[in-house]
Structures are given as structure tokens and as C-alpha cells.
Amino acid sequence: MSDSKDTQTGAASVRLHQPSPLAAEIAAGPSDEPSPLVSHLSSSAEGMAQSSQHSIQAERDYAAAQRNEAREDADELHQFRMLALERQKATGGFAGAGAQAGPSQATGGAFEPFVGSRVGSPIPDKNGLGWPGKGTLARLNATPEERQAREQKLADAVKVLLECIGEDPERDGLIKTPERYAKALLWMTKGYEERLPDVIGNAIFAEDHEEMVIVRDIDIFSLCEHHMVPFAGKVSIGYIPNKFVLGLSKLARIAETFSRRLQVQERLTKQIATAIDEAIRPMGVAVVIEATHQCMTMRGVQKPGAATITSSMLGAFRRSDKTRAEFMSLIRSSQR
């Protein structure tokens, strides 16, 4: 009995191990037919190799497309430069950087912007306005009598506004307010009356300079088209010349022209960048605007100090991370 119990006890303490399938395959040794595990690993390796090849091919295709796009841009820029130079030879040549406009410039000999602009661009419309509104031409071409009538119509509308908010347009402090506001609003939207070729004038010069040019912290003031209340901020503009440079003050003038309209900041940013790109066809243009909108600080959510930042990157600034990063670093520099 004792021996039987010990045997049972001993048998109960023994843990039997079943050999794994892998061990069985290893013990069986090589055979003509590969094992299921080896087949699975082999097919997985082949799949990974094919996937890797597809990935490499996709990268090569993308790189080739980028090179083709860059080549097409370079060819287009070269054709534009040649067209502009031929036009200059026929009309009297460049004034030269920093030079005073001579007789040939006064009679149309200076370089004309927007020559050779992209097909379908909104900039080189026949009136040179760039994104004109429905009534822009009527305002631009108005006679003195028509301007006076427009101002009076606007003043009458302001009287209605004053009445609607519960005021008396005839009291001493408000008698002249409608006329004052009419003149002020027409001035604050004077960008509708400015032609881009006139804004730039003859301030385009031939220069063998291909490094970044930046003018930052340009003050802008505009009216939000949603509530017609002001928004204000600063715009920084950068571009990489392609044999032509633009007078520095003209960058600010372009920003001023588009900001003196009813605007949204997103569109304003894009319009400034596109106008510069179409004017001189640089290798790239970058525009960043940081502004505060009174439509969200003095009304609505009432969050003073909230800033809106928008950007528009064209050409080299869009294609190259390093170029874009250099521009952003320079405009964010603490050296003020």
C-alpha cells in the first residue's frame, strides 16, 4: 500500500511537456517539401520585399514629378524674363536700382508689371484692378458730380442708421456726423480705386540678386466684411528675386491697396502674395499676417488679445521646407 501511494504521489508530481510543432520540424530534419512555417515566413518576406519596392518606386516617382515641376517653373520664369527684357529693349530700358526715372520712364519706357502673367490670373484684368468688385469700375471712373452724389447718398444712409439705433441725427453732436462718416468710409476703402500698375509704377529694377528679400512688420488696417468693424495688425512679406527686384516701399503699397477694402484676413494674405508673384515673377513669395479683429474682441465672444495668423506661400517657399523655415525664423527674430 505504501509503495502504491508513493507511486501515485510521484506520478502526480510529474509534469509532462508536449513537444512544440517547431521542435518537431527541427527534429525531422530537412526534406524536399518546405514546412508550413517556412512557407509562411518565405511568403511574408516576399510580400515585404514587394511592398518595399513599391514604396521606393513611389518615392522615385514623386521625386521625378518634383523635378519636372521645378524644371517647368524654371522654364516659365526664363520665358517671362526674356519677354520682359525684349520689351525693355523696345521701350527704352530700365531706370536701374535707385535711379531717378528719366524721360523714357515718364513716357512709358519703364518695365511694366504683370507682363507674361499666368493664364487665368485675376491680376492682369484690363483695368489693372485685381479682384474688382461689382461697382468698382463705376467708382473708379466716376465724374466729380457722380462722386458728390455718391457721398451724399452714403451720408443719407448714415442718418438712417443713427435713427435706427435710437439717436437724433439733428442734435448738435451728430449734425455733421453723416458727412464725416461718408468721407471716412470712402477713404478707408480707397483701395477699390487704385490700379496695381499705378501702385507699382516704374519701381521694378533689373538686379542680379537671388537671395531672400524681406520687409516685415508693415502696419495694416482694414474693415472686416462680415461686420464692417476694423481689424489691424502687421504683415511681413518676403520674396526671392528672379533677376527683377521691386522697390521696397511698393511692398507696403501693395499691402495698403488690398487692406483698404472690405476684407477677410485669409483673402487679404493671398491677394498680397499673388500680386507680387504676378508683378515680377520671383522664385517664391511668402506673406504672413498677424492681426486682431474687433469683431471678436469688442463684440461676440469678446476675447481681447486674441490674434489671428494667416500665411500664403508660393513657389520656393511652398516647395522647400528649409526656405520656408528661414523666412519664418527671420520674421520671428527678436531683433527689433
Automatic annotation (TrEMBL):
GO cellular component, one term: cytoplasm
Record's compositionally biased regions (Polar residues): 40-56
Record keywords: Folate biosynthesis, GTP-binding, Hydrolase, Nucleotide-binding
Keyword Ion transport tagged: no
PROSITE patterns in the cross-refs: GTP_CYCLOHYDROL_1_1, GTP_CYCLOHYDROL_1_2
The protein's annotated pathway: Cofactor biosynthesis; 7,8-dihydroneopterin triphosphate biosynthesis; 7,8-dihydroneopterin triphosphate from GTP: step 1/1
Biased composition (Basic and acidic residues): 57-74
Domain GTP cyclohydrolase I: 156-332
EC number(s) stated in the UniProt entry for this protein: 3.5.4.16
Keyword Nucleotide-binding: yes
GO molecular function, one term: zinc ion binding
UniProt GO BP: folic acid biosynthetic process; tetrahydrobiopterin biosynthetic process; tetrahydrofolate biosynthetic process
InterPro entries attached to this UniProt entry: GTP-CH-I_C/QueF, GTP-CH-I_N, GTP_CycHdrlase_I, GTP_CycHdrlase_I_CS, GTP_CycHdrlase_I_dom
Region (Disordered), start-end ranges: 1-74
NCBIfam families: folE, PRK09347.1-2, PRK09347.1-3
Family to which this protein belongs: Belongs to the GTP cyclohydrolase I family.
Role according to the record: GTP cyclohydrolase 1 is the first enzyme in the biosynthetic pathway leading to folic acid.
Name of the featured protein: GTP cyclohydrolase 1
Organism: Rhodotorula mucilaginosa
